[in-house]
Write a structure and sequence with these properties.
- This protein is an all-beta fold and about 290 residues long.
- Helices cover about 5% and strands about 50% of the residues.
- Strand 7 and strand 8 form a beta hairpin.
- The longest helix has 4 residues.
- The relative contact order is 0.15.
- Keywords: Hydrolase.
- Pfam families: SGL.
- InterPro entries: 6-blade_b-propeller_TolB-like (IPR011042), SGL (IPR013658), SMP-30 (IPR005511), SMP-30/CGR1_Lactonase (IPR051262).
Length: about 290
C-alpha cells in the first residue's frame, strides 16, 4: 500500500482539490478561502476569499476561475484582475447548500447540492443537479439524486456523479446541447438506504462517495467519506485498489509533475461546529501507477 506524505497541514477543512497549471488548488470550507500550492506544499497562495463558504472549483475556457459559494448558492467568477463577480445565482432553486462542481471544455458547469439541511439535522431528501451555461443561465439537469457530490467528465463525454447517500455512482451522457441523457448506474456498492434520519442512514452506507477524480484508464478514484479510504473503481463497480491514508478522507485529485500523485483531503470529520475553530485538516500525497 502506498504510504501517504503530508504536503499541506494547518487547515480547517480542505475540499475540492484540482491540479492546474502545475499547482494544487483547493477550497477550505471553514476558512472561507480558496488556496493553491506547489506540488510539495510550498508557496501557498490565497486565490480567493469566499465569505459564504467555497466548495467546487473549475475553469472557463479563457482561464477564469469558477467557485461554488455554498451558503448563498452562487457560482462566483474570478476576473483577470482578481475581483470576484457572480457568474450564476442558483439560490431560488436549490435546497440545502450548493456543493461540488465540474466544468466542461466549453464552459458548461454542473453543480450539485445537499438537498436538505445536513448540519441542521433534517431528514435526507433527494436533490437535483444543475447545469450553468457559459452565459450564467441555469437549467435543472437531473433530479432524484441522493446527495450529488464529486463529478468527472470522461473522454467519451459521460458525466459520472457520486451519490454520497445512495451507495452508487450514476452516469449520464452529455449530448451536443448539454442535456444529460441515457441515465444509468455506473457503479453500485449497495442499495439506496431506506432510512432518512442521518444517524440511521450511516450504518446502511457501503461506500459514501464524496470527491472523485478520473485516471487515464477511465477508472474513478473515490474518497469514501465514511469508510476512511480511497477506492479505485472501474465501470460496473469493481474495486481494483483500496488505500487507507490514516484518517477520514473527503476528496481527491490526480496531479503532480508526472500525473501520478494522488492528493487526498483528510480531516477528523466534516462537521462545521467541530472544524471551524481548529486547524486539523491536511492534504496528503500518495504515489499511484496510472496518471490522471
Amino acid at each position: 500500500m502506498p504510504r501517504p506524505t503530508t504536503v499541506l497541514s494547518g487547515f480547517a477543512f480542505t475540499e475540492s482539490p484540482r491540479w492546474r497549471a502545475d499547482r494544487l488548488w483547493f477550497s477550505d470550507f471553514y476558512q472561507d478561502r480558496v488556496f493553491s500550492a506547489a506540488e510539495d506544499g510550498s508557496d501557498v497562495r490565497v486565490e480567493a476569499d469566499v465569505p459564504e463558504q467555497p466548495s467546487g472549483l473549475g475553469w472557463l475556457p479563457d482561464g477564469r476561475l469558477l467557485i461554488v459559494s455554498m451558503r448563498d448558492a452562487r457560482i462566483l467568477r474570478r476576473e483577470p484582475d482578481g475581483v470576484l463577480s457572480v457568474h450564476a445565482d442558483l439560490g431560488d432553486r436549490m435546497q440545502g447548500y450548493a456543493n461540488d462542481m465540474v466544468v466542461d471544455a466549453v464552459g458548461r458547469a454542473w453543480v450539485g447540492c445537499f438537498g436538505f439541511d445536513l448540519m441542521g439535522g433534517e431528514p435526507l431528501t433527494p436533490a437535483a443537479l444543475y447545469r450553468v451555461d457559459p452565459d450564467g443561465s441555469v437549467t435543472v439537469a437531473a433530479t432524484d439524486l441522493w446527495f450529488p457530490n464529486g463529478m468527472v467528465i470522461t473522454a467519451d463525454r459521460a458525466l459520472l456523479v457520486n451519490e454520497t447517500f445512495g451507495n452508487r455512482v450514476t452516469a449520464f451522457d452529455i449530448d451536443e446541447s448539454g442535456d444529460l441523457v441515457n441515465r444509468r448506474v455506473w457503479a453500485r456498492f449497495g442499495e439506496v438506504p431506506t432510512a432518512r434520519e442521518f444517524a440511521q442512514v450511516m450504518p446502511q452506507l457501503v461506500v459514501s462517495g464524496d470527491g472523485a477524480c478520473l485516471d487515464a484508464e477511465g477508472a474513478l478514484w473515490i474518497a469514501d467519506a465514511t469508510g476512511a479510504r480511497l477506492l479505485r473503481v472501474t465501470e460496473g463497480g469493481t474495486v481494483t485498489q483500496e488505500i487507507r491514508p490514516g484518517g477520514n478522507v473527503y476528496a481527491c485529485a490526480l496531479g503532480g509533475a508526472q500525473g501520478t500523485t494522488l492528493f487526498a483531503c483528510t480531516a477528523p470529520d466534516f462537521f462545521e461546529e467541530a472544524r471551524r475553530p481548529v486547524r486539523e485538516a491536511s492534504i496528503v500525497a500518495l504515489p499511484v501507477t496510472v496518471p490522471g
